[in-house]
Amino acid sequence: MISEETVKKFFTSCQNHFQEYLKEYWQIDTSDQLIEQIFRGVPSEGTNCRYLFLVFQTYNIIPESCFDCYKILIEPRNVVELFKLMLVFEKLVLPNDNSRKCMIEIRPETSGTYKGLVYSFNLNEANNLLNIVRKVISQEISADVPVNMKRGCSEYSLVYQKYAMFKKNGKPIMQYKKKWQKYEKLAERINLGRDLVPIPKTFNKPGYDLNDAKAMIAWLKYAATINDLSYKKITDQDIRQLSDLNRPPFKEIK
What we know:
The chain has eight helices and five strands, in the order H-H-E-H-E-H-E-E-H-E-H-H-H. By secondary structure, it is of the alpha+beta class. The radius of gyration is 19 Å and the shape is globular.
């Protein structure tokens, strides 16, 4: 079980290492300047989520490959548990070293606060990952941390509600609409997303870098802004709150 003291020592060590580069970042007070995610693992070959989401935004269709996208959603109950999840993800052993991330939820239209996501691109693998992740989270953080499976991006289900729904047998309700193929072919023909930065082959790295350190500060700023006082267990630093954050008041899940 990861202790709060372990989290505090880790954060202090990380911040001390990058201290001279973080002075200005501590002063940021708007969410649009934040790095809010930390990634690890290996992305599925040939999948570019940024491009696929751009197709959705442009044509209001869900790309075909997104119908095989499933995510294990972990919902830490406070920012301390988010840090613990980050440490879990660093050493988590998965069959395909699936890509995974820890994040704060800043999208105004999307529910939730702190999240961890493990990516899978078929339903059988996702069910296997669900069992693995639940066991590890129970052992390392708490059996009370919610761990569930969801389908694809949250934005998709805001437009197509059935996309995120499952039948009683666990199979998804909504299937890909063949008429959408013409839009995907058009996106390829006009080279939509040609200016997007390519996804790296791996998110793994030796230790934590400056962007990771900045993301941790962003998480603490977020916690202080929504009045999640557990951040004080991690740092004694005076934290400048975010002036533009539009989130519901913090209520820790028991």
